[in-house]
Amino acid sequence: MTLRTLDSLGPLEGRRVIVRCDLNVPLRDGEITDDGRVRASLPTLKTLIEAGARVIVCSHLGRPAGAPDPQYSLAPVAERLGELLDASVAFATDTVGPAAQQAVAELQNGSVVVLENLRFNAGETAKDEKTRRGFATELASLGDAMVSDGFGVVHRKQASVYDLAELLPSAAGLLIAAELDVLDRLTETPERPYTVVLGGSKVSDKLGVISHLLPRVDRLLIGGGMLFTFLAAQGHAVASSLLESDQLDTVRAYIAEAAERGVELVLPTDVVVASGFAADAAHEIVAADAIEQSSFGAAGIGLDIGPETAAAFAAAVRASKTVFWNGPMGVFEFPAFAAGTKAVAEALTEVDGLGVVGGGDSAAAVRQLGFADSQFGHISTGGGASLEFLEGKKLPGLEVLGWQAR
Q1: Where do the H-state alpha helices sit in 106-161?
Q2: Which of 363, 402, 377 is closest to 154 using CA atoms?
Q3: Looking at 15, 16, 37, 219, which residue is catalytic?
């Protein structure tokens, strides 16, 4: 079977189409701080609007405990969506209750309503299949067809992602189709040289990705908090830097496998070490094998790759035809420790080929550092789902749309 796309649904004029988006945006004091995921949903929504569908947008936001919680309301998202569409977007103050039913009944061809946070109903994420199916059935009663377009949730067997797609005629939206195209190129048909840059805090979060991609890549660059576990695996002291001692043997095995496969494993040669985890912490640059010899001794904590490493990483990225980057190189939220992440991001904009920012913290970082989405080949909205795809795992939210892993 192949992925069902919008064309498979036939004419959409006048039909109620439920679109499962991923509008899980960061909020601060009720204001959206990064609307990237809202923007990513626009191509599919505009296509449906132009086709004359009656569009019902649903999404989760945050982790409410299966009950209404004002701090996780999608109201600000509905407002922002209206601004981006330059159209009036209605907002239902519940998910499947009277407000949702009335708002859907009032929809006209080409108009849009956003339902309140799906996770305000415990059935959305219920482990019990009967409970989950019950909520999905209530959702399904609002629509005639379903479009799945939230790649960030396709690894979850949840009511609006999996069950709803079984209950209604369903298809993938443009965002999911685009994500799959890029991820397929990363795993099956990469143009070479192929470089993967991994950062973020924990090695344990990336074990599956490293294992699945090592046979496929030419070069693997390691930064972020996870670099210290790699350094420790080589016998270097890392002072008070983040360290996953239980992963040392696993990392040693990866280092050996990379050498055996001829994969160039590039680890930092210098590190920015600070006196503590704070934006204004005193800091200095030291060799990666001499972290405890900084002025801070055993109390020092590595918070970024050093300038020598940043230059080497940037050169490796620029010299590649395919690059996948997931995870910042340091604590980019603190300006003093953002240089490594910025260097990698800048190099990625100059790749003569496919440069992919792997969602999550990486996407937030490039936007916070002043880069535009259009400067990159692709910014994934997938986060954990993208990583699970790259690990070769089955994703229920895609399989229910006809997709099968290779």
Answers
A1: 129-140
A2: 402
A3: 37
- Please write the tens of the pLDDT for every residue from 332-376: 999 999 999 999 999 999 999 999 998 678 888 898 899 998 999
Tokens of 52: 């004359």
Active site residue 360: yes
With contact defined as beta carbons under 8 Å apart, do 113 and 95 qualify?
Answer: no
**Which residue in 46, 157, 202, 216 is the catalytic one?**
202
Summarised one tens digit per residue, pLDDT across range 322-336 is 999 999 999 999 999
* Distance set, CA 47 to CA 38, 44, 80, 146, 402 (Å): 15, 5, 18, 14, 21
Predicted structure pTM score = 0.89
384 as an active site residue: the answer is: yes
Question: What SS3 state is found at 287?
Answer: strand
392 pLDDT band, cuts 50/70/90, is confident
Query: How many angstroms separate the Cα of 251 from the Cα of each of 7, 228, 235, 236, 371?
Result: 46, 11, 12, 14, 33
Active-site choice (152, 173, 327, 360): 360
State yes or no: cis peptide before 193, omega within 30 of 0. yes
Active site residue 192: no
Annotated catalytic residue, options 384, 392, 393, 402: 384
Q: Active site includes 37?
A: yes
